[in-house]
Amino acid sequence: MFGTLSDRLSGILSGLTRRGSLTEEDVNAALREVRRALLEADVALEVVRSFTDKVRERAVGAEVLKSITPGQQVIKIVNDVLIETLGGEGESINFDAVPPVPVLMVGLQGSGKTTSTAKIAKRLTERHKKKVLMASLDTRRPAAMEQLAILGQQVGVQTLPIVAGQSAVQIARRAVEAARLGGYDVVMLDTAGRVTLDDTLMAEVAEVKAATNPHEVLLVADALTGQDAVNTARAFDARVGLTGIVLTRMDGDSRGGAALSMRAVTGKPIKLVGIGEKVDELDEFHPSRVANRILGMGDIVSLVEKAAQTIDATQAQATAQRMAKGQFDLSDMRAQLQQMEKMGGIGGVMGMLPGMKQAQSQLANAGVGDTMFKRMIAAIDSMTPAERKNPDLLKNSRKKRIAAGSGTSAEQINKLLKMHRGMADAMKMMSKQKGGMLGKLGSMFGLGGGLPAGMPDPSKMDPAQLAELQKQLGAGGGLPSMPPGGFPGLPKGVTPPAGMMPKLPGLGGNGLPGLGSNPFGKKK
């Protein structure tokens, strides 16, 4: 979402770091460019003014202009002000009340309110072990209640039975009473949406709030609507009083202005963000991590958290043991590619790695992306178990059969096999290196060698442990050095930072798997 803004800010600030000293004019010139970049990203004018004033006030001090690394000091100041603008410390949904805790979901029609209700209910059920009841109060939109009921079946959360003819307030009271009698911890109330800010429906929401006394009033806003989302938040807050915001479609191509403006304008925290259409694609909003990603500093902690949530510990342990022995067949390669997809694809993963912004854009230009991985997986799926285990069986006739079954060509199958051989050789080399990549990751996560299985939960770590984890994984201090021979298999022209490479949990210890020949990407 913040791709364009991140590119602009990174380019402006990198120019400062190349200078041995800074004058006040240098800082002001850079801030003019920052101001322009924020306005182009659709950030509210009042927020832009406040942002640049805060940065200028701190950056023109003698301790910055006379410091040894003034450019880096300015970047730190920009990062700090970004975090403040986004909300400082992240806040999560508050359930510190006597159950059942009512949560009122409000927002415009089409913002993803009903889907977000189901996503939050699933998150509360699985992660917080809460017993949740969902109820649709939307008596106007056709099949709105049925939609929530279907989503409830998908996420395994109970929904209030539909009774025709009841008003929104009556349904809300019935839901709270049913939750109390049923021993539920949380009752999610999905109100009717509106195409525009309508006084009648706003009055209905206010009446529902008065009848249920919700502990949380969450506005669901579409990040793609930019400044309109901010105006919507103002209106709802003035009428019903918001406690938090859920931003949807954060995975889209929005310029990011809504997220940067929302907290500063309304004073309400962004608590959750939707990062996709699937029911499990919902994340907590961490201002410090978002600020780091905007400035190209990566987000190692979120990467580790995502790995911890997606890695199958048993499978990872078995894979680690095989790789420690130098064994790596096509089934292993397929598992690593699928793991990459679960963690957000190559773009999502590299966006969380410090110093990989340039490499990320180069990979995109070279046609290396999620589509390529899907075609590689399709080719491997067209093979028999024996062929995956022993690629030497793949002669011309078999390659033609696999190509026909996967929609590829025999030439592409040859390139895939060549890529696999290169990865297998790299695994053998790393498994023989004492204290090498596989060993370091294994010792870090308690495997005694090999890849991590059963990742630690960063949310349960204290600040000192998190700092050590980031240090070990390379956050803030550059990524760990790679084995001799360079970055394996990157397309020609893709140049990650010198002496650096990503070492990602669940990726076979080999960073980005098999990108050398670009067999399934764009045709050149």
Automatic annotation (TrEMBL):
SUPFAM superfamilies: P-loop containing nucleoside triphosphate hydrolases, Signal peptide-binding domain. It is found in: Cell inner membrane; Cytoplasm. Its EC number is 3.6.5.4. InterPro entries: AAA+_ATPase (IPR003593), P-loop_NTPase (IPR027417), Signal_recog_part_SRP54_M_sf (IPR036891), Signal_recog_particl_SRP54_hlx (IPR013822), Signal_recog_particle_SRP54_M (IPR004125), SRP (IPR004780), SRP54 (IPR022941), SRP54_GTPase_dom (IPR000897). It is an enzyme of class 3 (hydrolase). Its main location: membrane. Gene3D superfamilies: P-loop containing nucleotide triphosphate hydrolases (3.40.50.300), Signal recognition particle SRP54, nucleotide-binding domain (1.20.120.140), Signal recognition particle, SRP54 subunit, M-domain (1.10.260.30). The keyword RNA-binding applies. Residues 474-524 are annotated as: Disordered. Belongs to the GTP-binding SRP family. SRP54 subfamily. Composed of three domains: the N-terminal N domain, which is responsible for interactions with the ribosome, the central G domain, which binds GTP, and the C-terminal M domain, which binds the RNA and the signal sequence of the RNC. Involved in targeting and insertion of nascent membrane proteins into the cytoplasmic membrane. Binds to the hydrophobic signal sequence of the ribosome-nascent chain (RNC) as it emerges from the ribosomes. The SRP-RNC complex is then targeted to the cytoplasmic membrane where it interacts with the SRP receptor FtsY. Interaction with FtsY leads to the transfer of the RNC complex to the Sec translocase for insertion into the membrane, the hydrolysis of GTP by both Ffh and FtsY, and the dissociation of the SRP-FtsY complex into the individual components. Part of the signal recognition particle protein translocation system, which is composed of SRP and FtsY. SRP is a ribonucleoprotein composed of Ffh and a 4.5S RNA molecule. This is Signal recognition particle protein. It comes from Bosea robiniae.
